[in-house]
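User: Some background: our group keeps a shared notebook of sequences we're curious about, and every so often someone picks one and asks for a predicted structure to add to the entry. Today it's my turn. The entry only has the sequence so far, pasted here. Could you supply the structure so I can complete it?
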Amino acid sequence: MVGEAAGVVELLPAVRMATPDVVVLGAQSGIEHVHELAGVDAALVVVVGDTEAATDWIRFPQANVRALVHHDDPEADLVAAVRRAGGGTGYVSPGLSGALLSLVRASLPRPLKSVPTHEPLTSRESEVLQLVRRGMANKEIARRLGLSEKTIKFHVSNVLAKAHMASRAQLIASAAAM
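Assistant: Of course. Here's the predicted structure to add to the notebook entry:
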């Protein structure tokens, strides 16, 4: 241990002077100073009080957070977190891993449901629809599917007609509404 600070305001100059490999930080003392912490050339081990605080910290990759430890976890977890962060790997304490996995699952794109149509879509039209609803431009879709941009425009036009919609924006909005 090379130093101690009461808060981030004192921490930043101390870290710049001592240049530690790892900084252990209480979550409540630093979230509002994330941008300043980005300048710290040390792996951060953040001790958090709950899973909500942990999710706040993982939303700031610029802060170089390498480990998250729940404040109720045993001391051995903090020691493991410091060692792993100092060694260049990450660590999430068992008390937080379930909640963080749930957060990751929730952030993954969900499969888009089909748009209601009066006539069934062909398999190619369905494929083009899914790519349109993911925000891809005709040129990108054409490149991805190995088709011409004109062919993609034709398929988009057919989907719009079958769905009784006037624009791509309506197709994309219908995905968000489901």
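Suggested note for the entry: Strands lie at 22-26, 43-48, 65-70, 91-92. The longest helix spans residues 149-163.
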